[in-house]
Amino acid sequence: MLKIDNLTANVADKQILKGISLAVNPGEVHAIMGPNGSGKSTLAQVIAGHPGYEVTGGTVTFEGQDLLDMDAEVRAQAGIFLAFQYPVEIPGVSNAYFLRAAYNEIRKARGEEEVDPMEFLDVMTEKLKIVEMTEEMLQRSVNAGFSGGEKKRNEILQMAVLEPTLAILDETDSGLDIDALRIVAEGVNKLKRPDRSTIVVTHYQRLLNYIVPDYVHVLAQGRIIRSGGKELALELEERGYDWLLDTAGASA
Amino acid sequence: MSASIESLVNKEYQYGFVTDVESDRIPIGLTEETVRLISAKKREPEWLLDWRLKAFKRWQSMTEPTWPNVKYTAIDYQAQTYYSAPRSVKPLQSLEEVDPEILKTYEKLGISLNEQKRLSGVAVDAIFDSVSVGTTMKAELKKHGVIFCSFGEAVLDHPELIQKYLGSVVPYSDNFFAALNSAVFSDGSFVYIPKGVRCPLELSTYFRINAADTGQFERTLIVADEGASVSYLEGCTAPKRATNQLHAAVVEIVALDNAQVKYSTVQNWYAGDKDGVGGIYNFVTKRGKAFTNSKISWTQVETGSAITWKYPSVILQGDNSTGEFYSVAVVNNYQQADTGTKMIHIGRNTKSTIISKGISAGHGQNSYRGQVKVLPKAHGARNYTQCDSMLIGNQCGAHTFPYIEVANSTATLEHEASTSKIGEDQIFYCKQRGLNAEHAISLIVAGFCKEVFKELPMEFALEAQQLLGISLEGSVG
Per CATH, which fold does A2-90+165-251 belong to? Predict the structure, then answer.
């Protein structure tokens, strides 16, 4: 589904990604872990097409297409979804309006009919349950005045509505209390299907108790220095990152 | 910001065409003779000529204001034509007599003067250069006693009303541009709503500048008698020309006891090109006087003009009167706007609300200038001001000049202000959800302007939203 080969990327002329290779197959859950500043969020943003990052080398294909050649909105329409670490506020635009606009763009791209506000409300009624949110949430401006937890739940709500084939969760667990974490994780799990894949970017192992990964990758200084199964996450929890960094440093 | 976004904000001005009609123009220049000539062309009574001459004399002694936060090359008042009318426009008996070229012009602008095809529920007065070319729905309005006609007709048919109210809100001595307008105004609209009548239609005036090197100086006077109410809309466009053209209008509103007047503007004069060449200089004085329990509400969406200088204001004369000002002002490329309002609280328990949304893009400079003045007898006066600025790109500017003077300790005033920037992050967020950059910007801007748009009449709200999208095309630089 997603194939990254020797990807390098800069931000403001500073190299952040220094040769990432990663393959994600349908139905898989990959966790990307690593210390602060290792390039985890950069990787997520580059896959989604943020214009602030400059790809300097390597290739990324998504379902056989050259992803790096696509605008961010085309990537979204193709089925890539990024749950933002810091969801952006759009004052004055209701959540319902924003979500329907996004939903219709993605339907259009798939060759499906657009839906009117009434039809959309029916869609939403189902989706709201997934993240335990009420309809009142739809009338509020996008993320404006939302608590940290509400913002993250709103991201998962959007994911539920847009039904991406590849969802990237960028530190979705940061700033969540234990209840919100459970709701968010359960939401993600409910959306799991054999043809959908997930990349979970996280600093802590905690989220992976709820969203169980098939693979864990450790990113440090712009490279994947170790890949393994879910047990790798537990080992990191116990031993921290330092022992891996030492090994990586020694081999570099 | 990425080039793709930049290209979005520079859509072509679609009203920039010229209509080829023969016109009756007076020679350029401005002297007492010019004033007499205009008055004679309009076959005006002596009292009006006298008033014009007094205004002209006063204007000669005044100097152009320099306090607005705008820069432009000095206007040569002797290089303008002060009157230009399509030759075919004589006093018309009916709309069928209007030059087909002019009717076509309005069709092209989306305004049908054909009563059969009219927007339901809207009566239109169409002003082409210096004269009104026709007013629709007059018969329907007459049934309710509503007078809606060109200013010129009103002078001849309703002199008592004009004499009573002309200059009663904006005296000819008010300011440089008001004095100029009072001396040379050529036409405009007049509205009178009789006692207790709710005007059954939306009234609207559509201003079109067509001739080159010609200024447009129109005057609008709206009088709502006791307990009357009316909603009035104003729209403006002009051809694309490389020279600047002057538009100096005056609007006066009188809301007598218990009356309500709602005045909405969508101003889309030609703004000049992307390098700031050409465009309309828009110097407008708009003011209303609100008597006891009455309400005057200004809503404006200002997207056009090279320079905008405009402060729709309310004198809250009567007890319990209300003044409102809702404004969206957009500047792009090299446009400059210095706009805001004045709320003068004189009566007791007077109330005013100011919501101003300024959007700056390109090299545009946008200033909000607002005055809230509470006089000693205005016990219990209240004002709420909210003044928000949005910046798109790094070359533009937003400025705020609030003036607050309070002479009564029982008054309550609130002032809120904010400045935000449409960032790459907001646009990226929308794009990541599948919206393209154009859609993203229009969504973000519409959200920003929501509180103002909801005050506009329905058909105007849609137009305004579209207009905003067009004005901002290519603005994210």
Answer: Rossmann fold (3.40.50)
